[in-house]
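Task card 7
Instruction: Convert sequence to structure tokens.
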Amino acid sequence: MMPDGSLFVSGVFDAETDFDPSPAVDLHRPEGLYDRSSYVSKFNGDGSYAWTKTWSSAFGISRLRPGGDGSLAVIGYGWTALDGTNTPLDLDPTSGVDLHGEGPALVKLDTSGAYVWGRTWAYGSHIYDVAFDSAARVYAVGLFSLTFDADPGPGTVQLASIAGNGDFMLSLDTAGEFRWARSTTRGRCYAELNGIAVNGDQLWVGGALGSCTGKTDPEIELPAALDPTGAFHPSTPFLLRANLDGVVDRALSFPNTFNASVANVMIGSAGDLYASVSMDRDTIDFDPGPGVAQRLGTGAAILSLSNDGTYRWVRMGGDTLGGVVSPAPNDGVLVSDWQPTVTAFDSAGNVVFSMDTSRWSAEVGISAASSAAGFVVLGENKAVCATGYELQRYAW
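Output:
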């Protein structure tokens, strides 16, 4: 959701569909393998329909990230051989053509849905999250396997990992041209970066790393691969703070006993940091400073830090607290996942409200939730409803 209340929705469809829920009609037909296509629709702040753009089944959408200028980053993955012909992927959902090879893909649309540019990287890498700064420059994070050319253009900026998977963050300018890239692990650890957020002239990124054969850059403290009981530590959650040129000045790790990862990050309206942390039979010290805020749990937690990395609070939960975080009024945070519960916290970590939609129908599950402009929007799959999908907006 945008600050003005306008909303972007993405998904797939496999039959001729009218995407305009009003009496007007905007029909789209699927194309590609199995007559299946990806789409992005925009609705204005009053709920009125704006537009829909579609791609063939060769482009699968994984996430949307809006920019402050009304533009939209569409994150996905392109496959060039789904139809058996090895046809290059067309990232332009309008009447134009912009062909690319397979791999992680990033498409930028403007506020009217017009195609601005599209970029792809090599097969075997993944983009997990994207953020924009105030100048509309793009920052992306993810992981790669063995080697990775971070420059999607004609240049080559090679990153390498001797540990299998390595992490990366990179930046593109407003025209989609390469600016810079870096890997925290320097190829010496298994690692991934899952979330990124911009706070003025700073970046916060989060992920997980482990199985190190050398020091990271910057150096991040990790537990021994095996603890005294012989238990193996596959991954340790961590956060980095960097400037807009990718220079890191804070590296925070969270000592854990088994397997955990920072899944998403978000900046609140007062500049505080919120992160969702996935956990698996794990004990974690959520205070990256000298204090101790140790918790035991399975599923997930929501962590809040000040912008300088100082611990504020943590709230534990099951799977319902392990998903996407989005900004809420008064420096709060809205948390949602693929479960039928959405929870809002204020800046002190107190529950403002919690909505459990399982009481409505056993066939209903929230597939998305977002908050902005004092509203909450829920997207629900309705298996027993002829229209199939429904968006609901609630006042805060």
